[in-house]
Amino acid sequence: MSESAAPVGNVRRFPLLGMVMGVIVLACLAVALVGPWIAPYRPGQIVGSQIFGAMTASHPLGTDALGRDMLSRILVGARYTIGVALPATLGASLAGTTLGLLAASQGGAADAVLSRAMDVLITFPSLIFSMVVVSAFGSSVPILILAAAVIYAPGCYRIMRSIAVDIEATDFVRVARARGERNAAIMFGEILPNMIAPVLTDFGLRFVFIVLLLSSLSFLGLGIQPPLADWGGLVRENIEGLSVGAPAVIAPAAAIAVLTVAVNLLIDNLPRGWRR
Amino acid sequence: MAAVSAMAANVEVSGLAVVGQQAGGADVPILREIGFAIARGEVLALIGESGSGKTTVGLALLGYARRGCRITAGRVKVGATDVLSLPAGALAALRGRRVSYVAQSAAAAFNPAHRIIDQVIEPARIHGLLGRAAAEAKARQLFRALSLPDPDGVGARYPHQVSGGQLQRLMAAMALINDPELVILDEPTTALDVTTQIDVLRAFKKVVREFGTTALYVSHDLSVVAQIADRVAVMRHGRILECGPMADVLAAPADAYTASLLAAAHPQPRAASAGAAEAPPPVLEVAGLSAGYGRREGGAALVPVLHEIGFSIAHGSIFGVVGESGCGKSTLAQVLAGLLPASAGTVRLNGAPLPRRVSERSRAELRAVQIVFQMADVALNPARTVGAILARPLAFYHGMGGAARRRRVAELLDMVRLSPELAARYPGALSGGQKQRVNLARALAAEPALILCDEVTSALDTVVGAAILDLLATLRRSLGVAMMFISHDINTVRSLCDQVMILYAGRAVEIGPGRLGPGEAAHPYTRLLLDSVPELRTGWLDHIDHAEAEMAAGGFHLADAALPCPFFRRCPVRIAGTCDVIPPPLRPCGGGRQVACHHALVPLRAEG
Hints:
The structure holds 2 protein chains of 2 kinds. Chain A is mainly alpha-helical. Chain A is built from 10 helices and no strands. Chain A has one domain: Orthogonal Bundle (MetI-like fold), CATH 1.10.3720. Chain B has 3 domains: 2-265, P-loop containing nucleotide triphosphate hydrolases (Rossmann fold, 3-Layer(aba) Sandwich), CATH 3.40.50.300; 282-515, 3-Layer(aba) Sandwich (Rossmann fold); 525-596, no CATH class. In chain B, strand 19 and strand 20 (507-513) form a beta hairpin.
């Protein structure tokens, strides 16, 4: 009898790249928490007469269009970028995944109603929708979070529903149905554990989209309001510095890139056992 | 083997080794020291269970190794060419022209977007051997040789417009169009029904003889290759255990593993001794059951699959359901499990009516009927450990938790002859046989009165499947649980079951004791099924009745279900004017057997 089992690799090992990226993401989170206390200057404080200043010992990332310390503005801005994007992504992922599971496992009318409702939501261009919401309700952190979550939930729903529909048709789900399991047990006990990897990957992508959406909103002046600014807003404020190669415009753009790339590489390099 | 090599060997393989790369980067040997020769016009069978490396050998003859595998040593000579030393361009010129390949699933090997003829002549066109008209003429000649119905018209169709058995023959035509020096047939009949398999086998045998084809026939089924191969090589764990003339190996296997394969091919009677005590009360009674897919007004199914099925299963007995694919046997299991509500009829569990849907059944009713599916690997949640999978029904039905549940999980694993350490593993780390045992253990966890086994051994290797059958028989004896055993393999069912129901096009054509005595009455379809199972001896295929086989070929159509007797079109003993007008009722004909046939008695193999 050939009862030899398939070989399994070490599912608990954390890939080095994943660990490095994890450290970067943790560092960003830490900055978001304690940024104002470690910033060398107050974010709104004009520290000198030089605008778009170069990197110096006292201003490691130079100064901005009004002569404010760029390092301090980025350290403080982290809490707006991460503090809005993270809960918004969590909200979008949670809603999209749960509703996708519900539609796939219930089928029939529930699926039809949910899917058509999501179709309606997805027809609004994201930027225009958020501009309407922000101009109607004013720009505040909760409104921004809510708007971003609502805009990105339908995309997540689409992907998660299609994956869940495939899993729903497998024999182990039929076994669970024949056992008499309730729908919630099938959604979260049988189907969800098999889509952790796509849920996480989708989370990473959606996080990037939401950071970029917030940057666009800030760029249009509808995001975080001055004198405070998230990283996207910092890019906007200092865009004229681009022609003189000022670090003030490069640094926040780089911060956005580092954060989004790190989140995605972290998710792609989690130990295999976590995302089976 | 030396003797063969001395002859005009067309194909010579020596010292062939293939390794596969594991996730960690380490190499695992897949083939070691493979060596054999095939003489011109000879058919060599390569026999082995799944994972033995037989397909890897077949692909290596094309100079190909699957992704993640490498050919590390050895020589493959086809004619005078050393295949493994050829550069990529020369390999492409060899493949499809001098060496061709017939895959197991013809349905997956044909492109659904192109006409059949264009795909069959493609090898000739790619190698620039024949003009279009000449290639098509050659194809039609092959279609004729392969006994395809409508050889002139079949090419104009698309792959989905012909049956699976025909598609398999069309793929053989594709492989033969360039008169290759070697054809590799990789399990070409495994996915087919028994009655279709015979058809395809007979066609293959005919062309092999007619064209003097040299072939390597890869299969797991000794009985099948016994009909077509001259010699056989038995493989296991990447090595050839023995190689010799077919008849010699069958008569006197040199290797213990070959002997166990031979033993597993003869089903052992596992049924309980017949007529021991008075019949126990039925656990399940089914009457007038109809079901199908979709819903019409008034409750009838849009596509009816089962028609007025009635039977009962005694406590602690095994009830077999046999039929070809599409006859409705899996639908029956789903209806009884409550996954697919019946459109008519009643089901009684221990005398009380059983609601049609899962959602309407009480927890006790749910617990009493458990289902085990064919595909062991997709029936286990890959994200849960074996322990968690078994713990769920314990918590769900018995409210068991903590140490008691852990103990019971270990007990259940022991019941299905698995080590309790497997509880910590994920299904991906189990073999096919182990997975099917876990599936059984999960059903047993509910402590059911009836287990619905839907083709539970069909996806397993012969030897592993035989062990599962033994386990089922043991469990029935020790636990007294009744089973419904669904299979397409009539011999397996007869060896295991107390009562057997034969389904044809969704109708029960026969219900009776599993074992058929010689000369006992049986439905003509039962006879066809029995006659279609290849016997483990050479030359069996040549001795079956060709006229009857021609008539029976082709399987059933959905429309057959609407005929008064669904088997009418294929029946060798049909009575025109009766069988196509009056539906034959299911009626007793002695020995506890009921047969739906106008012939009062159809003796089994009356002519001997």
